[in-house]
């Protein structure tokens, strides 16, 4: 049978090397995404029925004081002008001043984001290290006791409110057993003792070679990180199981087994290799969720992260802080997407 | 497979050993006070601007004032602090303070009369929200150079008319009366802001503690001032940690990781009472819980309906159930312990009487909206009201929102009924009389959003004049009587139903002594604490 010939209209190409073209296109799409994100957040902030002026002046302010701050915040100008000023400030790296903390938003984010980053990273590592093997084993031993355990573990993770589980964890491991440090990032002995380099106390204390402070920080982070890790584990293990089941029922797996290949090679060498791209998406999404900040976990463990920072700011109409936080979260998502794309190319021969 | 198993086993062992080998320290150091508190309301630590509870707690310990309260004897009223003594002119308008000698700021600079004048003028010129506490005496940016005058070691302030001296001095004990170090503040001035930006996150005081750090929503750390004129505090360091959850605060207290837990809910208070090594410290605070009915509403503006609402509140039921221990019934706008405060609580839940009053007023069922912010105890009060009002044929819809949302509507006179709290701004009866019972111009155009009477469109029926008279009365006991009379009329005629007064119940380790939370009139004092 004669192959059908297809004609593809060639796009006019810029006289640039392919990698530069790729970079330009990526940067362009990132800029458009960020601008859209800023616009939407800005508009939501402005239509919310919360008065940002009251956040500054408080309940007792006179009308004159209220009007002065209304003007100071630029709220007397048309929305489009306010947005234009805001974007031009952001482009200069100036996110403005937070109304609630009396500091530049950039400084606040530099303080709260590392706290979330540290927590989320340990959480996702725990989630992956335990969740992926658990999912694979559950798929391979489908219907066995280990599959049932994995199912229960995931079900509890899905259905148990994090607030309750966090409090119970604190009660057991901190209150009763005394195995871990309490709420907060550090014990009082180490408060303000470690010079801040990265803002991540584990890394900063290691850099300072203060191992007492390191273990103290570790004892504070391990419980909330395990909790977040558990929730990631629940999701990752279920998704891994389902991806693996799909692969294990494929004909190439049967062929491999028929050809006498070892079970290890079939599972890890063939089936698992084929789910890596899907897994990356799942893990990246879980990680992104954790990096947004888990507000309830932060509240229970008095963890000064970006989730509660943005939430408090939103409820108090501290729009500079909300927009600054949103930009950071948006950037995190974009970075993770770009990173996932790179990994796809690495793992998926078709995209090479 | 074996490699994988080894890897997993190593990881599991690592986590297990790491966790079990963690050092846990279960007692705070002997010279350090560690407190768990909600401190997310702090937006600035400039005494000319700060107006929140947690901020007042910090600033009371950091700044000296002309006159101040002695935590060991709050009932004695204002006492000399940075001012050693004062005299009042014959016309009663000028008070001249003589400064205490030898007192130094944390920076080492001497505390001078000039610093006092600068601090008070700064309040007027910056014109931040709490500035009214000072400017209500007639100080304006135009006249401060003539009305606040330094002469050697004395500073004189001249008010626009004669006021009760106790009123002026009580106002100077408020946070805004904090004396700042002029040299240090002006060295950090940016764009003519008189150091406002810098002082938001730094301190320039002469009090028993200096500010080491404020990390928003995380912690406030104070270091003892070894040169404090009243003697170096026993607690060399005070750390106030932001801990949002009551249950978490309780756990930390029972574990010995903190000395004081300031935000325990009633069930955790009961838990702490049963625990060993900790106890509950109770103090009446100044915060009142009240409802107010808009007088723009055709039915609510009828005197009989206003009265009926006061008989439709289950004061006792709420006090003995979900508010147990945290609030006590109090139906007057002056908190207990204030000059002129009264104990009379004539209203109780009385459905028959309420129904009769409503019928007399010609009201046969109506629908009302109560605006309430999203806070547990307030929502519970709102639900109780919904229930009892419903029994008299009044359908209540709750409009629940954030504090800022509901407050915005309240200030715009848009709510039928507002359910909320009010805390006094300074320890003088005028602080509440001047907002609950004072409304010189009830028109929309007056826009007196700071006055509660105006927010509810209430023409006070003569109480405005009585309040204005009480604030200038020089005789203390006569002044107290005047406020008692104002409150009696207020209870009967106003659209406000004051319901409860706050009782703070703090969990405290039993080795802590000398902690004073400030009662109804001031903020917490750390410098008297010993272990």
UniProtKB/TrEMBL annotation, chain A:
<comment type="similarity">
    <text>Belongs to the binding-protein-dependent transport system permease family.</text>
</comment>
<feature type="transmembrane region" description="Helical">
    <location>
        <begin position="20"/>
        <end position="44"/>
    </location>
</feature>
<feature type="transmembrane region" description="Helical">
    <location>
        <begin position="119"/>
        <end position="140"/>
    </location>
</feature>
<feature type="domain" description="ABC transmembrane type-1">
    <location>
        <begin position="113"/>
        <end position="344"/>
    </location>
</feature>
<dbReference type="InterPro" id="IPR035906">
    <property type="entry name" value="MetI-like_sf"/>
</dbReference>
<dbReference type="InterPro" id="IPR045621">
    <property type="entry name" value="BPD_transp_1_N"/>
</dbReference>
<dbReference type="Pfam" id="PF19300">
    <property type="entry name" value="BPD_transp_1_N"/>
</dbReference>
<dbReference type="GO" id="GO:0005886">
    <property type="term" value="C:plasma membrane"/>
</dbReference>
<feature type="transmembrane region" description="Helical">
    <location>
        <begin position="321"/>
        <end position="344"/>
    </location>
</feature>
<dbReference type="GO" id="GO:0071916">
    <property type="term" value="F:dipeptide transmembrane transporter activity"/>
</dbReference>
<keyword id="KW-0472">Membrane</keyword>
<feature type="transmembrane region" description="Helical">
    <location>
        <begin position="152"/>
        <end position="177"/>
    </location>
</feature>
<feature type="transmembrane region" description="Helical">
    <location>
        <begin position="217"/>
        <end position="236"/>
    </location>
</feature>
<dbReference type="InterPro" id="IPR000515">
    <property type="entry name" value="MetI-like"/>
</dbReference>
<protein>
    <submittedName>
        <fullName>Dipeptide transport system permease protein DppB</fullName>
    </submittedName>
</protein>
<dbReference type="Pfam" id="PF00528">
    <property type="entry name" value="BPD_transp_1"/>
</dbReference>
<keyword id="KW-1133">Transmembrane helix</keyword>
<keyword id="KW-0812">Transmembrane</keyword>
<keyword id="KW-0813">Transport</keyword>
<feature type="transmembrane region" description="Helical">
    <location>
        <begin position="279"/>
        <end position="301"/>
    </location>
</feature>
<keyword id="KW-1003">Cell membrane</keyword>
Automatic annotation (TrEMBL), chain B:
<dbReference type="InterPro" id="IPR000914">
    <property type="entry name" value="SBP_5_dom"/>
</dbReference>
<keyword id="KW-0732">Signal</keyword>
<dbReference type="InterPro" id="IPR039424">
    <property type="entry name" value="SBP_5"/>
</dbReference>
<dbReference type="InterPro" id="IPR030678">
    <property type="entry name" value="Peptide/Ni-bd"/>
</dbReference>
<dbReference type="GO" id="GO:0030288">
    <property type="term" value="C:outer membrane-bounded periplasmic space"/>
</dbReference>
<dbReference type="Pfam" id="PF00496">
    <property type="entry name" value="SBP_bac_5"/>
</dbReference>
<comment type="similarity">
    <text>Belongs to the bacterial solute-binding protein 5 family.</text>
</comment>
<dbReference type="GO" id="GO:0043190">
    <property type="term" value="C:ATP-binding cassette (ABC) transporter complex"/>
</dbReference>
<protein>
    <submittedName>
        <fullName>D,D-dipeptide-binding periplasmic protein DdpA</fullName>
    </submittedName>
</protein>
<dbReference type="InterPro" id="IPR023765">
    <property type="entry name" value="SBP_5_CS"/>
</dbReference>
<feature type="domain" description="Solute-binding protein family 5">
    <location>
        <begin position="78"/>
        <end position="442"/>
    </location>
</feature>
<dbReference type="GO" id="GO:1904680">
    <property type="term" value="F:peptide transmembrane transporter activity"/>
</dbReference>
<dbReference type="GO" id="GO:0015833">
    <property type="term" value="P:peptide transport"/>
</dbReference>
């Amino acid at each position: 049978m004669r192959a059908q010939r297809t004609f593809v209209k060639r796009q006019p190409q810029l006289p640039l090397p392919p990698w530069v073209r790729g970079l330009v296109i990526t940067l362009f799409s990132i800029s458009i995404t960020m601008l859209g994100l800023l616009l939407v957040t800005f508009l939501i902030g402005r239509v919310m029925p919360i008065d940002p002026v009251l956040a500054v002046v408080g309940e007792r302010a006179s009308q004159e004081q209220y009007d002065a701050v209304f003007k100071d915040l630029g709220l007397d100008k048309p929305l489009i002008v306010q947005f234009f000023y805001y974007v031009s400030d952001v482009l200069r790296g100036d996110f403005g001043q937070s109304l609630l903390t009396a500091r530049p938003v950039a400084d606040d984010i530099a303080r709260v984001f590392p706290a979330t980053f540290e927590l989320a990273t340990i959480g996702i590592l725990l989630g992956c290290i335990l969740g992926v093997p658990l999912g694979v084993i559950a798929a391979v031993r489908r219907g066995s006791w280990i599959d049932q355990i994995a199912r229960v573990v995931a079900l509890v993770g899905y259905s148990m409110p994090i607030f309750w589980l966090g409090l119970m964890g604190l009660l057991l491991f901190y209150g009763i057993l005394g195995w871990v440090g309490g709420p907060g990032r550090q014990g009082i002995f180490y408060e303000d003792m470690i010079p801040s380099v990265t803002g991540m106390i584990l890394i900063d204390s290691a850099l300072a070679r203060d191992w007492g402070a390191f273990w103290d920080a570790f004892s504070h982070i391990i419980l909330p990180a395990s909790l977040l890790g558990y929730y990631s584990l629940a999701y990752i293990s279920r998704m891994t199981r389902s991806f693996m089941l799909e692969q294990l029922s494929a004909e190439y797996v049967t062929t491999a087994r028929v050809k006498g290949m070892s079970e290890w090679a079939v599972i890890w060498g063939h089936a698992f290799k084929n789910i890596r791209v899907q897994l990356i998406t799942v893990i990246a999404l879980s990680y992104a969720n954790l990096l947004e900040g888990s507000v309830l976990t932060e509240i229970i463990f008095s963890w000064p992260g970006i989730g509660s920072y943005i939430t408090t700011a939103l409820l108090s109409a501290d729009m500079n802080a909300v927009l600054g936080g949103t930009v950071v979260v948006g950037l995190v998502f974009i970075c993770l997407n770009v990173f996932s794309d790179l990994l796809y190319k690495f793992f998926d021969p078709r995209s090479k | 497979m074996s490699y994988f198993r080894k890897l997993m086993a190593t990881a599991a062992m690592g986590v297990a050993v790491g966790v079990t080998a963690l050092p846990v320290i279960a007692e705070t150091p002997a010279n350090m006070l560690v407190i768990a508190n909600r401190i997310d309301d702090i937006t600035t630590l400039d005494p000319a601007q700060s107006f929140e509870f947690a901020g007042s707690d910090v600033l009371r310990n950091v700044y000296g004032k002309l006159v101040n309260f002695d935590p060991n004897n709050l009932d004695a009223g204002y006492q000399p602090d940075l001012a050693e003594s004062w005299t009042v002119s014959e016309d009663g308008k000028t008070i001249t303070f003589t400064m205490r000698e030898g007192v130094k700021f944390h920076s080492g600079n001497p505390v001078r009369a000039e610093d006092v004048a600068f601090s008070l003028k700064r309040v007027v010129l910056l014109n931040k929200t709490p500035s009214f506490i000072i400017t209500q005496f007639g100080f304006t940016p135009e006249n401060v150079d003539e009305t606040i005058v330094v002469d050697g070691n004395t500073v004189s302030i001249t008010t626009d008319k004669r006021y009760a001296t106790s009123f002026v001095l009580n106002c100077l004990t408020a946070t805004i009366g904090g004396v700042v170090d002029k040299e240090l503040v002006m060295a950090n001035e940016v764009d003519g802001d008189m150091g406002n930006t810098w002082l938001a996150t730094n301190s320039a005081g002469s009090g028993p503690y200096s500010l080491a750090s404020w990390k928003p929503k995380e912690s406030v750390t104070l270091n003892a001032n070894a040169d404090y004129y009243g003697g170096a505090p026993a607690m060399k360091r005070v750390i106030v940690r932001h801990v949002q959850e009551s249950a978490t605060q309780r756990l930390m207290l029972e574990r010995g990781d903190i000395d004081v837990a300031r935000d325990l809910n009633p069930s955790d208070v009961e838990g702490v009472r049963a625990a060993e090594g900790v106890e509950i410290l109770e103090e009446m605070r100044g915060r009142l819980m009240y409802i107010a009915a808009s007088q723009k509403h055709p039915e609510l503006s009828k005197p009989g309906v206003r009265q009926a609402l006061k008989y439709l509140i289950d004061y006792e039921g709420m006090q003995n159930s979900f508010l147990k221990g945290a609030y006590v019934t109090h139906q007057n706008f002056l908190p207990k312990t204030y000059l002129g405060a009264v104990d009379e609580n004539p209203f109780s839940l009385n459905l028959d009487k309420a129904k009769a009053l409503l019928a007399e007023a010609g009201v046969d069922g109506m629908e009302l909206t109560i605006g309430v912010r999203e806070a547990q105890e307030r929502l519970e009060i709102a639900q109780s009201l919904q229930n009892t009002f419903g029994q008299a044929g009044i359908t209540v819809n709750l409009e629940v929102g954030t504090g800022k949302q509901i407050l915005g509507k309240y200030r715009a006179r848009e709510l039928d009924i507002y359910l909320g709290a009010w805390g006094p701004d300074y320890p003088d009866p005028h602080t509440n009389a001047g907002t609950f019972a004072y409304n010189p111009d009830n028109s929309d155009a007056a826009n007196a959003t700071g006055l509660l009477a105006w927010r509810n469109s209430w023409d006070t029926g003569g109480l405005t004049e009585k309040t204005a008279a009480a604030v200038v009365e020089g005789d203390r006991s006569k002044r107290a009587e005047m406020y008692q009379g104002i409150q009696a009329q207020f209870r009967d005629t106003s659209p406000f139903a004051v319901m409860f007064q706050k009782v703070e119940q703090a969990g405290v380790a039993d080795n802590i002594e000398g902690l004073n939370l400030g009662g109804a009139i001031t903020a917490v004092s750390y410098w008297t604490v010993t272990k």
